[in-house]
Amino acid sequence: MDSNGNEREQANYCYVPSTWAENIVEQAEKDGLRLSYHTPYRLNIHRDEFCKLAWQTIQTVNPNINLPELAQPFSDCDEDIVRQIAALGIVTGYEDGTFQPTRELSRQEATVILQRLYTVLYGKIEVSPTLYADNGSIGAWAKDSVYAMRQTGIMQGVGANRFDPKNGYTCEQSIITMLCMTQKA
């Protein structure tokens, strides 16, 4: 809130990358990794936004990738980018047939998508993990992905040898991660 108690300042604040991310986000956007003109950098990313960044990453690394036929639309999402990313096996929906495009991604969910994207672009990753201190908090379904992304250097922990798997993943973190993915080529 600003000095008058208005939320305007807080709302505008999220549209500017954090100081630590400023230069890297600027470079990523120059390289074509951009969500929108009004990206809420400091807020958690949604599933459909992460798909958009994944698509831009694919187009940067391998613009001539052999694309399969679009996946069937999800009951709550018919966006072509989401359907293309799903057709490549990078994202999946939920058992009820939904994609939940505006659902925020957790850090462990992001690593699963990132590992699948990495596999599409570069091939499999052999993982020999050094465990995070909060390894017990990481879902069994995400552990291989968490440690694969750590090993590649594409996505790391939050400090103090912790991964913080259930915390959200911000737009600025996602943009920077995708930039790291493009630099593996």
Keywords:
185 residues, mainly alpha, 41% helix, 0% strand
Write the layout of secondary structure elements.
Blueprint: H1 8-13, H2 22-30, H3 47-61, H4 80-87, H5 107-122, H6 143-152, H7 171-182
Helix pairs in contact: 2-7, 3-4, 3-5, 3-7, 5-6
* Computed Rg: 17 Å
Strand percent estimate: under 5%
Measured distance between first and last alpha carbons:
43 Å
Number of helices: 7
Fraction in helix: 40-55%
Largest sheet: none
Shape: globular
Helical/strand content category: mainly alpha
What's the order of the H and E elements?
HHHHHHH
How many E strands? 0
List unreliable stretches of 5+ residues. Answer: 6-10
Overall mean confidence score, pLDDT: 91
What does this structure look like?
There is one protein chain. The protein is mostly helical and 185 residues long. It is built from seven helices and no strands. The longest helix is centred in the middle third of the chain and has 16 residues, at 107-122. It is globular, with a radius of gyration of 17 Å. The termini are far apart. Residues 6-10 have low confidence and may be disordered.
Quick recap:
41% of the residues lie in helices and 0% in strands. The protein is built from seven helices and no strands.
